[in-house]
Write a structure and sequence with these properties.
By secondary structure, the chain is mainly α. 71% of the residues lie in helices and 0% in strands. It contains 4 helices and no strands. The termini are far apart.
């Protein structure tokens, strides 16, 4: 295989952002876009940055608590030799949208 063909093969494995020639610029552009959208959201909603930070902290805590609960339900299902769907049915009989069948 010639050197030119090897160079072309290597170039095909690197994906470039269509608007630039820097492969990492896509991440930088995404970061800039995210910062811009967050600023617009703050301006539009007239919400303080402290409120947004507090909301994100609470959301993070909720997600960690939910994930821990999911793990515990999974462990309980293994101990009982059943499925997590059955555990939900046993503990939360009034909730019918946990597992849509």
């Amino acid at each position: 295989m010639s050197a030119n063909k090897e160079e072309n093969k290597e170039c095909k494995s690197v994906q470039f952002d269509e608007k630039t020639e820097n492969p990492s610029s896509g991440l930088i552009n995404a970061s800039d876009r995210l910062a811009h959208v967050e600023k617009e959201l703050l301006d539009y909603k007239n919400v303080s940055e402290a409120d947004v930070d507090n909301y994100l902290t609470l959301l993070h805590e909720y997600n960690e608590t939910r994930d821990t609960a999911q793990e515990l339900i999974g462990h309980l299902a293994r101990i009982r030799g059943t499925t997590t769907k059955q555990i939900y049915t046993d503990f939360f009989p009034d909730i019918d949208d946990v597992y849509s069948s």
